[in-house]
Amino acid sequence: MTELPTEVDLGAEELSGRIDGDTLTVTISRPEKRNALTADGYHGIKRAAMIVADEPALNFLVITGSGDVFCAGGDMNAVGNPDRKWDAFTEAYDGTPFETLGKIPKIVVCAVNGLALGGGLVMTLYADLVLASDRARLRIPDLTRGVYEAFVAARLPQRIGTLRANHLVYGNDWIDAAEAERLGLVGKVVAHDALEAETRALLDRVRNTGPAARAAMKREMARPLPSVDVSGYWASIGTAEQIEAFTAFLQKRSPEWPTASDRDAFVSTRRPAWAPRDS
């Protein structure tokens, strides 16, 4: 069998890939942007997942971050990056790695070393195992950006229950690691400095299980999960609401949500049933 390289080029400056035994570990390192991922970064994580899926000698994909940040999601300033390597234009509908993480027959582990929000949190929803540092903080800010986060909607209620999911999605509050563990959003919280060792120990325990049986178990547990409304997700990108939300975020102000509706004429016919007419 061909010996696998130690270092793996994932095609994104913010990602480093390293193979150790049967494990490919991807580390997100972009501290100046809180480890926010570019389009190349998202594609690189998908590439890592496919490498693990293909290679018989690899059983695990571990995703983690550098410092005290796991991943702050996608970089909203990097959309028009002229140095982008991946063709995000023609492959936009398949631009995120989330479903790939859930579909490959190998085990995906998120070692959440700190801040996780947006796409960083979504990756944990499609991973098979999630360990978190006691310094981790998590948030789902997508609705504040005017984005219909279909990937969250398809997995979060199943993981923690609909009502608790509603509070996280609509309230967009930060939660700490202990609360995330209580809700079932992460599997286990460990001391920050012990996260790497605890991840290795967890993988050692998983190695005591049969690889083929693991793959079958993963496939069966995923079977009843709802499909992701990817077309709806992309339909929410580029709307007046989403553009205003992104602009407000970049300008560090509150959004001024558009109120126009294509149902105005219909609503006006119903209003007399409850609102008094003008004199």
TrEMBL record:
PANTHER family: ENOYL-COA HYDRATASE, POLYKETIDE BIOSYNTHESIS ENOYL-COA HYDRATASE PKSH-RELATED
SUPFAM superfamilies assigned: ClpP/crotonase
Spans traversing the lipid bilayer: none
Annotated region (Disordered), positions in chain: 257-279
Protein's name in the database: Putative enoyl-CoA hydratase echA8
GO molecular function: catalytic activity
Entry similarity comment: Belongs to the enoyl-CoA hydratase/isomerase family.
InterPro entries in the cross-refs: ClpP/crotonase-like_dom_sf, Enoyl-CoA_hydra/iso, Enoyl-CoA_Hydratase/Isomerase
Top-rank lineage group of the source organism: Bacteria
Pfam families: ECH_1 (PF00378)
Species this chain originates from: Mycolicibacterium parafortuitum (Mycobacterium parafortuitum)
Signal peptide boundaries: none
